[in-house]
Design brief:
- Pathway: Amino-acid biosynthesis; L-tryptophan biosynthesis; L-tryptophan from chorismate: step 4/5.
- It catalyses: 1-(2-carboxyphenylamino)-1-deoxy-D-ribulose 5-phosphate + H(+) = (1S,2R)-1-C-(indol-3-yl)glycerol 3-phosphate + CO2 + H2O.
- The chain has 272 residues and is α/β, with parallel strands linked by helices.
- The chain has twelve helices and ten strands.
- The chain has a single domain, classed as TIM Barrel, CATH 3.20.20.70.
- The strands form two sheets. An eight-stranded parallel beta barrel has the order 1-4-5-6-7-8-9-10, surrounded by six helices. It has a two-stranded antiparallel sheet with strand order 2-3.
- Helix 4 crosses helix 5, helix 4 packs parallel to helix 12 and helix 10 packs across helix 12.
- The radius of gyration is 18 Å and the shape is globular.
- 44% of the residues are buried.
Length: 272
């Protein structure tokens, strides 16, 4: 059993336990359930420069503890101040050290920015959970869902007013799961079975994703050169977590990257 299979097996057990504690009706009573969502897809579609979706992540199965000395409300406020187009907050406890509390603290601190619930969604119940904690976007990972599951979950997410980010790793996943209720296609440069990363994955798939979908690249993004290169291949957004979180001040790390991106933009203007 690889790490992804272990995560999904644990997630299904976790969902069964959660359903015993809170019903769908209980989730619908959450303070954020009736709030209007903020579309990340629209924000990215309108962008004319590379946009960063900044992630709050305490640990990962491949890296272990990344940063457990910072608080989500402070880090995410710094991300927003540094120009993040959206926020991603991990809610998986066992493998990534995340929690609903992390998400809620970030949500309360940043009411006006799109927020992604970063987790392994395999059940409709989790969509209601996401809505109840104030998420605007949910993640569907093609590698752990069947095409019919992606279709059903994305349709239900849209009924709840949530944007849908579909994550793929190869052309087969893309072709089998792309559909009408997908808003954003994210290409994960990390192989979830080996955890090796290569941005060539994003480059190879860039031409295969229809222009009607917003494209973002995920994992292995560390510098402005890489981001600009991928932007030239049609990627509007770049989801970055570990690169920022492994520093003492993740918000400052984002601000520094933004400066480097601006310098690239200025150089391109001079060349043109």
């Amino acid at each position: 059993m690889n790490i992804l299979e272990k995560i999904i097996a644990r997630k299904r057990t976790e969902i069964l336990e959660s359903k015993k504690e809170k019903s769908f009706a209980d989730l619908e009573k959450g303070i954020y359930f009736s709030k209007s969502t903020i579309s990340l897809a629209k924000a990215l579609k309108a962008a004319t420069t590379p946009q960063i979706i900044s992630e709050f992540k305490r640990k990962s199965p491949s890296k272990g503890i990344i940063n457990d000395q910072v608080r989500p409300e402070f880090v995410t406020k710094d991300y927003v101040a540094a120009g993040a187009v959206g926020l991603s907050v991990l809610t998986d406890q066992d493998f990534f050290g995340g929690s609903f509390d992390d998400f809620l603290q970030a949500r309360e601190a940043n009411p006006g920015i799109p927020m992604l619930r970063k987790d392994f969604i395999v059940d409709e119940y989790q969509l209601f959970e996401a809505k109840s904690i104030g998420a605007d976007v949910i993640l569907l990972i093609a590698a752990c869902l069947t095409p019919s599951e992606v279709a059903d979950l994305s349709r239900k997410a849209h009924e709840l007013g949530l944007d849908v980010l579909l994550e793929v790793h190869n052309q087969q996943e893309l072709e089998e799961t792309i559909g009408d209720h997908i808003d954003i296609v994210g290409v994960n440069n990390r192989n979830l079975k080996t955890f090796e990363t290569s941005i060539e994955t994003s480059i190879a798939l860039s031409e295969q994703i229809p222009d009607s979908f917003v494209k973002i690249s995920e994992s292995g993004l560390k510098d402005a050169d890489t981001i600009v290169r991928l932007f030239q291949h049609g990627y509007k957004g770049f989801l970055i977590g570990e690169t920022f979180m492994k520093t003492v001040n993740p918000g400052t790390a984002l601000a520094d990257l933004q400066k480097n991106l601006a310098q690239h933009s200025n150089l391109n203007s001079l060349i043109l």
